[in-house]
């Protein structure tokens, strides 16, 4: 007969054996026989990787935008807070860069920086603007990214030769906050058409015409991360826009797979929070959440584009900190 203290010892050992097995299962990504469901576990693991105390080993960016900005300030993260400390746009000199949606906002700022760095810009969109015209680059107007005829027709006819970098920047976010009370399927289709099919239309047309020499960049949004909805949309909503970016991301991943053999990298970039017409509806949180002038956003984007390699193809990166965003 075992004495009480021996029994206690055995149950203690059993407990720790079970804990070890659980830990092993967690490391292997297995489902716990009992305990939290996999989604909760997965989320906890991602949060842990994002909250890694050592910035050098961090993989994922933080979902909480306020906490992300606060952490950058606490760590005096120059990469995040002062892009000029790392940005070197000299790689752009003489490069032919095709950019969609460059007549305003972030696109205009990217076109401005490209021009400053000596790139040859070809801006494609529905219309131009006096600011864009003043840059003196090539502007192809009358091209709506939802219209295959103008993309395959006017754009290809006027692009005038191969391009080194394609930046799919054109995007659209319906003004209203969309909930079950005001679902707008027409707006949802429009957002999906512009934000997900748009970059595919433009990129595939250029590729099939043999005009892509380098990389394809898709300016996406953190809004496309399903994982981050648990933090950023605690009450849901914004169906059309966020679905459009999730669709955009899966499109870009598939494109990256198909273009691997051709040696063309495809990378998705969240450009950070920029003070543009699109986000004016959030202007009351611009300061708190670290929204930047689009000229800063443009350098962040171009800094990440400068880091693109085939190894990075298919990844989804936050241009604020250079870290990945989970799907
Ligand atoms: N601002 C941010 O904080 C933020 C955050 C995450 C992601 N983004 C993404 O970054 C990109 C630029 O955003 P932004 O803030 O600069 O927005 P913006 O000021 O609203 O500019 C959007 C651009 O897209 C063009 N566009 C829209 N629909 C088009 C269509 N059907 N065909 C061709 N061009 C079209 C617009 O041209 P028109 O003049 O013809 O409308 C404009 O040039 C977007 O893809 C956006 O989703 C922005």
UniProtKB/TrEMBL annotation:
Among InterPro entries, the record links this protein to: NAD(P)-bd_dom_sf (IPR036291), SDR_enzymes (IPR052184), SDR_fam (IPR002347)
Q: Name one GO molecular function term.
A: oxidoreductase activity, acting on the CH-OH group of donors, NAD or NADP as acceptor
Q: What is this protein called?
A: Protochlorophyllide reductase
**UniProtKB keywords:** Signal
Signal peptide coordinates: 1-29
What domain of life is recorded for the organism?
Eukaryota
């Amino acid at each position: 007969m075992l004495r009480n203290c021996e029994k206690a010892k055995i149950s203690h050992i059993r407990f720790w054996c079970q804990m070890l097995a659980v830990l092993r299962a967690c490391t292997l990504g297995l489902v716990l026989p009992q305990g939290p469901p996999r989604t909760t576990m997965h989320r906890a693991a991602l949060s842990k990787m994002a909250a890694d105390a050592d910035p050098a080993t961090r993989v994922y960016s933080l979902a909480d935008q306020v906490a992300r900005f606060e952490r950058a300030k606490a760590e005096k993260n120059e990469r995040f807070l002062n892009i000029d400390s790392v940005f070197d746009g000299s790689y752009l000199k003489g490069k032919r860069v095709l950019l969609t949606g460059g007549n305003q906002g972030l696109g205009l700022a990217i076109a401005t920086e490209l021009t400053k760095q000596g790139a040859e810009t070809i801006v494609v969109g529905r219309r131009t603007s006096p600011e864009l015209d003043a840059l003196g680059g090539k502007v192809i107007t009358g091209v709506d990214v939802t219209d295959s005829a103008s993309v395959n027709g006017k754009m290809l006819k006027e692009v005038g030769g191969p391009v080194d970098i394609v930046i799919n920047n054109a995007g659209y976010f319906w003004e209203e906050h969309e909930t079950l009370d005001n679902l707008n399927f027409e707006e949802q289709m429009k957002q999906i058409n512009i934000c997900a099919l748009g970059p595919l239309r433009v990129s595939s047309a250029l590729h099939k015409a043999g005009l892509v020499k380098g990389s394809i960049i898709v300016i996406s949004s953190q809004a496309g991360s399903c994982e981050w909805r648990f933090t950023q949309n605690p009450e849901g909503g914004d169906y059309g826009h966020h679905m459009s970016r999730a669709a955009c991301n899966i499109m870009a991943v598939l494109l990256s797979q198909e273009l691997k053999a051709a040696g063309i990298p495809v990378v998705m970039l969240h450009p950070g929070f920029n003070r543009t017409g699109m986000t004016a509806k959030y202007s009351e949180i611009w300061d708190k959440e670290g929204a930047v002038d689009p000229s800063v956003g443009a350098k962040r984007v171009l800094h990440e584009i400068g880091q693109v390699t085939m190894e990075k193809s298919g990844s989804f990166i936050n241009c604020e900190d250079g870290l990945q965003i989970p799907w």
